[in-house]
Specification:
With 327 residues, the protein is mainly alpha-helical. The protein has 2 domains: 179 residues, Tetracycline Repressor, domain 2; 135 residues, Four Helix Bundle (Hemerythrin (Met), subunit A) (Up-down Bundle). The radius of gyration is 21 Å and the shape is globular.
């Protein structure tokens, strides 16, 4: 054991002194998948509102388009990757206990290199938000940064608080989508279609809540040893699957209820949206049911969680299609 620890420290020290650029690339690679997902939420948010393409076509100032819209996906990507790495730094010992082979707990990068990466990614994101000259975008990015810090900050550590942990992730994900929804072109549309805005954010929040909760299923033993109170630990693995299935089923009454409400209020809306969302909810429920077979297999739970990644993208696509096709 002593030999292994010494070798690990030597490896960390060697990389820390000779491969700074590589360390930044390693950290980026470790979390880029989730950065892409949250960035796609921002891209998708640009098209959630009905009539957004027509509004965009009215714009003739190409410079304004580039300045206020183009940086938004990059901002979400940078903030997300930086905050995920900050969480990895705070959870290094726990990740090591859970057997996760991430760069920080495995000793591939040093703490100094990690802090540099966090400062660079989030600093660049803040700079890009200021360059948009859009007060709404700057405010949303500020909230994203604040949530990311509070999630991992030692004394507050929202990641350690029952339910609040997962709610925080859902709010952050919604903010990424809201960054696109409230861009220069779709802000007025969002204000004029509040029910559609609520629908889009609620569907995304429910799905990411499900995904994040199921992610904790693969870390139950390590989280319990660390004194964490995640949803699977508090209510049990079986009940966690049941909760996820209930949340998925709840998408049905929510999507149809809000559609009917939008029609009654005279808002723009598309029948395509509740139809696609309903089909999506049934698929997710089916997958949740299949997960009950491997509840006691940690690796099986992690594999199932990875399979939820494309479903988040599918939901985003469904909402975009609903915003573009008016039926």
């Amino acid at each position: 054991m002593m030999s292994f620890t010494t070798n690990g420290n030597q490896k960390k020290e060697r990389i820390g002194h000779t491969s700074f650029v590589r360390s930044q690339l390693v950290l980026l690679e470790s979390r880029k998948k989730w950065g892409i997902l949250y960035s796609l939420a921002t891209v998708s948010g640009l098209f959630f509102m009905p009539g957004v393409l027509g509004t965009m076509c009215l714009g003739t100032d190409i410079l304004a388009i580039f300045q206020k819209v183009m940086p938004l996906p990059a901002i979400s990507f940078l903030v997300t990757v930086g905050m995920f790495v900050l969480n990895d730094l705070a959870d290094a010992d726990l990740d090591r206990a859970n057997g996760k082979k991430r760069p920080i707990p495995s000793g591939l990068v040093s703490k100094r290199q990690t802090w540099t990466f966090i400062m660079l990614t989030n600093g660049l994101a803040l700079l890009l938000s200021i360059m948009t000259l859009n007060p709404i975008s700057i405010l949303i990015v500020g909230l994203m940064l604040l949530l990311g810090i509070l999630y991992s900050a030692p004394r507050i550590a929202l990641m350690k608080r029952f339910v609040i942990k997962t709610i925080t992730i859902a709010i952050y994900y919604s903010l990424c989508a809201l960054l696109g929804i409230t861009s220069i072109y779709s802000l007025d549309l969002a204000i004029g279609n509040p029910i559609i805005l609520i629908h889009s954010l609620s569907m995304l929040s429910i799905m990411i809540f499900i995904s994040s909760t199921l992610n904790d299923l693969g870390d139950v033993e390590g989280d319990r040893a660390a004194g964490r109170r995640t949803i699977p630990i508090v209510i049990g693995k079986g009940n966690t699957i049941k909760l996820s299935m209930v949340l998925a089923i709840c998408m049905l009454p929510v999507t149809w209820g809000l559609y009917v409400l939008a029609m009654a209020a005279g808002n723009n809306g598309s029948l395509v949206t509740p139809v696609l969302t309903s089909l999506f909810a049934l698929v997710v429920t089916s997958k949740m049911s299949n997960m009950r077979k491997g509840l006691h297999d940690m690796e099986s739970m992690r594999r199932h969680h990875k399979k939820l990644f494309p479903l988040n993208v599918v939901l985003q696509s469904n909402l975009v299609v609903g915003g573009l096709i008016m039926l």
